[in-house]
Specification:
By secondary structure, the chain is an all-alpha fold. It has one domain. The protein is built from two helices and no strands. The longest helix has about 70 residues. The protein starts with about 35 loop residues before the first helix and ends with a helix. The mean pLDDT is about 80.
């Protein structure tokens, strides 16, 4: 509590061994909600209701992550192809500029040669 600058509402002795736990449960993390009375009617409510829902929830999350990952891999492949194409275009532009510069130099040299001749 000292770390978060929280003033203890009780005496110092009361909260000596207490910790403040901060966390958030997002809607994506919620497996489900059940009525307690409905659950207690089944002696194996955890095995019959909660575990199957938890497993289905975890599988749905794994599927969603697989789809996102596969989509990202596709995007990454496309990005890599685009990067290679950009590099090739840059190389071609540099070669064309180099050829144009050489041609310009040759024309200039030829013109200067004729002037000096």
């Amino acid at each position: 509590m000292k770390f978060y600058d929280i003033i203890p509402p009780y005496s110092a002795d009361y909260s000596i061994n207490h910790y403040l736990c901060l966390w958030e449960v997002t809607p994506e993390e919620v497996v489900g909600t059940w009525e307690w009375d409905e659950l207690t009617n089944d002696g194996q409510w955890y095995e019959h209701k909660i575990l199957p829902a938890l497993r289905a929830h975890q599988e749905a999350i794994r599927q969603r992550h697989r789809i996102e990952r596969d989509g990202n891999e596709f995007d990454d492949d496309k990005d890599n192809e685009d990067d290679e194409q950009d590099e090739n275009e840059d190389d071609n532009e540099e070669e064309e500029e180099s050829r144009a510069d050489k041609l310009e130099d040759n024309v200039l040299a030829a013109a200067l040669g004729k002037i000096h001749s």
